[in-house]
Amino acid sequence: MVDPSFPSGGRVIESPPGLPEGWKAMEKMYKSGRLAGKTYIRFEGGPRNRKNICTVPQAITLNADDLGLDPNAERMKYDQIRAEVEAKKEQERAERGCVSKEQEEKAVDLFEREFGKLEAAVVPQIEGWTYHTKWLELSSQTHVTYYSPE
Question: Who has greater pLDDT, 90 or 6?
Fold first, then answer.
């Protein structure tokens, strides 16, 4: 459903990392069709006041062209910024106790070597672990939640 209070030209939102200086991120809303009411992001700005740019890399390339800079060098700077952001996110996940996909796969391999295939029937037999089942009428499925001793 289309929100009548949503600004017709869109609204400025926080710019993603790496968006060139002088550019802004705009949240816009589909006015009709099957996506009516859903929002999307476009970028605008730069020396030529470009509009409706779909991605940050596109904005970087156009901005570099407009300023007479090397687009490849500017994209490499962006790739470095993205790598730094991802590294920071990974560190924050680790601080919260989350593990990377690689670490998860190693843990599953270790578990399976010790206890066998990680299946529903195995987990309740591990010392200290408990579980709770719930029948979901709508989907005709049994939902199982496992609880570690910690």
Answer: 6
For the chain, the farthest-separated pair of C-alpha atoms sits apart, in whole angstroms, at 66
Nearest Cα neighbor of 75 from 14, 13, 20 is 20
C-beta of residue 23 within 8 angstroms of C-beta of residue 59: yes
Per-residue pLDDT, averaged over 78-97, amounts to 91
Give DSSP secondary structure letters for the chain.
---TTS-TT-EEEPPPTTPPTTEEEEEEE--SSTTTT-EEEEEEETTTTEEEE--HHHHHHHHHHHHT--HHHHHHHHHHHHHHHHHHHHHHHHHTT---HHHHHHHHHHHHHHHSS--TTTGGGSTT-EEEEEEETTTTEEEEEEE---
Nearest CA to 124 out of 98, 92, 149 is that of 149
* pLDDT given for residue 74 in this prediction: 97
Please tell me whether the overall predicted TM-score, pTM, comes out greater than 0.70 for this model: no
